[in-house]
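Residues and backbone
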Amino acid sequence: MTTTDFFTNTKEIIVTLSALVGIFIAYKGLEKWKQELVGKTNFDTAKSLLKATYKTRKAIHTLRRNWILREEYNYMEDLSEVEKFKEVFSKRLQVLDDASQELEAMIVEGQALWGKEFEKTFSALNVVIDKLRLSIDQYIVLLEEPNTDKESVEFLELKATIFHVAILDQAHESFAHNLYLAIKHIEDEIRKRLK
């Protein structure tokens, strides 16, 4: 073997090794980029889910506000108290519906990333929202009945669910307490997915 052959063979070995090192570095770079992309997607989806959850919570708080703003009833002078209540709460419920629809869309994104089981994270919040809607419907029925006892336990329980009353909201099994627990569960589950 001549010196020229030795250098040619060495050169070919070095070129081959360089190509293999280049492929290895490119592969590692792609893996790191893929991890960063997945991490960014998870983070962005989790952040959007939390924002939509908080927007829904705010809509619930607004709905439960126990005073009616002037702009909510300005045009309702000719309506009965029941009709005013229906009108005000139908508008407040629309805000909750909009927030809930946005949250539902984000939940679908979460399911696409983290699986079908992820939807269960929001089941307690859905129960709370359903209870609020049902309470409003039942409250309206009772308001429309002429002989409703507004001091009955049933009526007062509905009122405690629909309206924010600080002393009642502090009770262990109150509507506000259950809402807090539902939101806390969502926060805990979503934060697990940020790791």
Q: What stands out?
A: The chain has one domain: 3-192. The chain is about 80% helix and 0% strand. The chain has a mean pLDDT of 85. The CA atoms of residues 17 and 23 lie 10 Å apart.
